[in-house]
Amino acid sequence: QLPTGLYKKVLVILHDSVLPYMNEPTLMMDFLTVAYGIGGAISLLALNGLFILIHQHNLEYPDFYKKLYNLLDPSIYHVKYRARFFHLTDLFLSSSHLPAYLVAAFIKRLSRLALTAPPEALLMIIPFICNLFRRHPACRLLVHRPGGPADMSEDPYVMDEEEPSESRALESSLWEIQSLQNHYHPDVAKAAAVLNQSLSEMEDDISGLLELSAYELFDKEVKKKAVDVPLEFEQVRGLFGKKNDIFAEHFSLD
């Protein structure tokens, strides 16, 4: 048992400062799987080490995607390690052999959580979801299903279900992204409107959006050049506004 602070420090450096120098990196399997099951930030940090063991050392983890799915909660868009988590999640969901129900469950859960996410996170997660649709065309029925639920209570998707296969995500529709098309931030509304059109074959590069901050968004708005808007500077007089017009003698605008 390690203190929480020490757990985090070890997991932050484990994947690049420890595992590459071990003769048998597989010895860390138990440590990382236990850390992955703890939850919260510790589970997020354990993903780096697990990624190396799964891809390079043939670690089999039957419940891996179930636990990854359950890591998605409202705090995921606010945590310090958000960029690292979504970078790895993107890699884990890149395989074309994943079942449609699993990817649809991730899309629905990310979309539902996006309803309360800050703009800087939304500008990253919307292209992220679009990339999942490009990789897994079978999930596009979430966008193109006619007659979606009239309100949230009619949505067949079960948000509290821990098992992705039981969440009924493929029976639902992506009304959450449609709601974001009316977002107060114009860039978010524009990004969400992309799903109204047919998606291009080329995936969006989200690497530059993973660490986007609220400060950068604000700074971008402040540095925008103001567009000169023509204004009426001469006061209108009379009915037709002409100088020395006979109508100006008999009609006035209050």
UniProtKB/TrEMBL annotation:
Keywords: Membrane, Transmembrane, Transmembrane helix. Residues 43-192 form the CCAAT-binding factor domain. Pfam families: CBF. InterPro entries: CCAAT-binding_factor, Noc4. GO terms for cellular component: Noc4p-Nop14p complex; small-subunit processome. The chain crosses the membrane at residues 31-54, 85-107. GO terms for biological process: ribosome biogenesis. Belongs to the CBF/MAK21 family. This is NOC4L protein.
